[in-house]
Amino acid sequence: MKILITGATGFIGRNLIPILEKEAEIERILILIRDRKKVEGLYSEKVDICTIEEGYEEVIRKFLPDKVIHLASFLTSRNDSEVIDKILDANIKFGTLLLNTLRGCQIKEFINFGSFAEYRLGNGLDSAYLYTATKTAFRSILKYYSQIENFKYYNVIPYTIYGGKDTQKKVIDYIKESFEREVDMSYGEQILDFIHIDDVCDFIKILLFHEKEIPNEQEFYLGTGKGTNIRELSKILEKIYTKKANIKWGKIPYRERDIMYAVAPLGNNIEYLNWKAKLKLEDQLAEQSRAEQSSKS
Question: Where on the phi/psi map is residue 265: left (φ > 0), alpha (ψ -120 to 50), or beta?
């Protein structure tokens, strides 16, 4: 099996690729990125690198991938004129050019990553942000190419990922920062589904090797099925770190169209893959705390 991966410098990509490198069934991995310097020295000789500026179309057609994992995106809650071109370029134009390049390559499977913010109210597609609206729009383009090129595609919807070395700060980091200084936050009523990055990578690996058993056009909601609101999360971290969070709740207003409930439905994960997340939030946060203390001593 040969796999093409976009978004290799992002949070999921940096954690996933070292795992896939160890799989004997995977012959080669080709990563398509913007900046070669960001990944030089990170991966083994099993990983080939090409950039958008280096004539990637010819490289991909020579590589002839069997499967594609499309992680690349431009993520933002903004919709002002300064970011619109970046959103459209990353979330629609880039993916469309990639799909057009793959014509004739006879790929078997295209794994497309979306966002839980495409489901603002949790019951059908209703984007919270322009960013997620473009992710939803790309689905129609992906379906078109799937039909004319006869490959399967799946939409994977990750919920709130934590753990490992993230590429940007998230809510857990801000709460931990509040142990040392005052931090302004919203009222903290949002209920989120926290899934560890190791579970995310485990799911992707299993999905790659079960393509024959899964019907086309399926959606997989990647979470634990358990919701934790941000105030509860703060209490969990206070208990683990034995410190008091210095958070000014309600200092920051909720964003327009903010998502108040985002918990993954697990039906397809269980039905098609017999898969559930294994790692519990409290256990992993406690393990992270111990690792931090160990590194300091």
Answer: beta
49 — alpha (psi -120 to 50), left (phi > 0) or beta?
beta
Decide if pLDDT at 232 tops 90. Answer: yes
Exposed e or buried b for every residue in 242-251, given b needs 16+ CB within 10 A? Answer: eeebebebee
User: HSE-up of 128 (CA within 13 Å, CB side)?
Assistant: 22
Distance (Å, whole) CA 48 – CA 65: 12
Residue 40: Cβ-neighbour burial (10 angstroms; 0-12, 13-18, 19+): exposed
Residue 214: alpha-carbon gap to chain centroid: 21
First-to-final CA distance of the chain: 44
pLDDT confidence of residue 266: 97
| Entry pTM | 0.95
pLDDT by residue (tens digit) across 42-78?
888 899 999 988 889 999 999 999 999 999 999 998 8
Instruction: Dump pLDDT digits (tens) for 249-264.
Output: 999 999 889 999 999 9
Tokens 């017999």 correspond to 274
Distance CA 33, CA 21 (A): 17
Q: Tell me if 84 sits within 8 A of 72, measured CB to CB.
A: no
Tens-place pLDDT, residues 177-204: 999 999 999 999 999 999 999 999 999 9
Q: How many other CB atoms are found less than 10 A from the CB of residue 284?
A: 18
Q: pLDDT at position 132, please?
A: 96
Tokens 């939803």 belong to: 136
Q: At 160, give phi and psi (nearest 5°).
A: -85, 105
